[in-house]
Amino acid sequence: MEPLIFEKSRSGRRAFSFPPLDVPERPLEELIPQQYLRTEPPELPEVSELELVRHYTRLSQLNYAIDIGFYPLGSCTMKYNPKLNEAVAALEGFQHAHPWQPEDTLQGALRLMYELGEMLKCIVGLPGVSLQPAAGAHGELTGVLMIRAYFQHRGELQRRRKVLIPDSAHGTNPASAAIAGFEVVTIRSNEHGRIDCRELERHLGDDVAALMLTNPNTLGIFEREILLVERLVHESGALLYMDGANLNALVGLVRPGDMGVDCVHINLHKTFSTPHGGGGPGAGPVCVAESLLPYLPVPRIVYRNGRYELDEDAPHSIGRVHSFFGNFSIFVRAYAYIRMLGAEGLRRVSHDAVLNANYLLSRLRGVYEQPYPETPMHEFVLSAAHLKRFGVRTMDIAKRLLDYGFHAPTVYFPLIVPEALLIEPTETETRETLDAFADALIAIAQEAQQQPEVLRSAPHRTPVRRLNDALAARRLDVAWGRAALGATPASLEAHSTTA
Ligand SMILES: Cc1ncc(COP(=O)(O)O)c(C=O)c1O
Known about the structure:
499 residues; alpha/beta; 3-stranded antiparallel sheet; globular; binds pyridoxal-5'-phosphate; Aspartate Aminotransferase, domain 2
């Protein structure tokens, strides 16, 4: 295990030193008021440049990343991100652009955002867009705030207090609706893993503002009855919000606008590539139908008289949801990705995502339970509930996968599946990789029955063995002090051994 850099510290070692001063030295007190000056030097690590380089290089090698191996984290679309995008995002003109620059000197950046917006509108088949939201959940909140503004404008907000959300939705959906001040009502899925339309009909009424539907849903299943759902929702006077974060199953094949959706958010950092492990940064643009156009955030980027401008003139807008334009460098990556693939390439994304998921499922069906035996789209859910009788839980399988060199899938989600494994291979993996992953999961299922202890005590081959997640969260210990030298962090205390 790599020690902390503080543990490598030896007094007097330096990685870098300043040359001797060639100007007269002034006492610090002249520059900084006495009360702000340290009385003791900070406890910074003292290491040589080589040790510094080795330390961080080793740490980086302990990381797991999509550029190292398969990352089937369901619902996250951890696909390969073409290096071309990085090169384009690093172009000097993009990298050094400043949002306070006058519009005239930002024409290229504004054009890129305008054109990206146009492409997204075309992809989802809706007439309005805002690129501002910084993540999928932020896009949802923006969408729900627009829905709120829509009903406020019509004088119906007092009455329409509810947002309906299926139990297969992403957890951010109810959170977004609640933050926007709505009461969340859960709609049950049917035995096929789709929204139960009878249940939906029972809940729809003049107190409902919207249905938030993830499509394909978090079971990876396409909501086939979407046109019926759309009719029921609109007949009741409510609006239809679609969580479009799973768009890599649909892009180029169907358009949310054609399904009658009023608002959809897109996770650029999933569908249109961006390295997004570790939580960001991302971008969650929203696209809207005619009904919600007046409420889109400002400023809006418009093309007028041969130049790109920022338009603030929208009296019903919900206002800004992000400083400046949003996460610009993510727009550059998405733009490069869409332009690189073109219409045909994007269609291929969906085909390959669905093909890969179905191929992997065909290898694992029968070894693990498939709680909703439907043909999935870009991801699928298995359950390891049948292995509980050997004392093995899904968490043990996830940890054992690390020993086989794979990142684990999403586990215990969606919540409606006991002992769930949500597997999303993505469109960028080869058949050999899918086979190797399937072989590992099949071998683990055998181990579960023959030597369950190997799973319960996994992982065995990682630098740090199994952590106590609960302690790590409750007694978070990320600060170093001299007293911490040699002490065991809380997260390691319970049942972890370091290899
Ligand atoms: C279906 C779905 N909706 C919403 C989100 C939330 O997106 P973000 O994590 O960018 O907030 C995700 C995230 O992966 C998702 O998969």
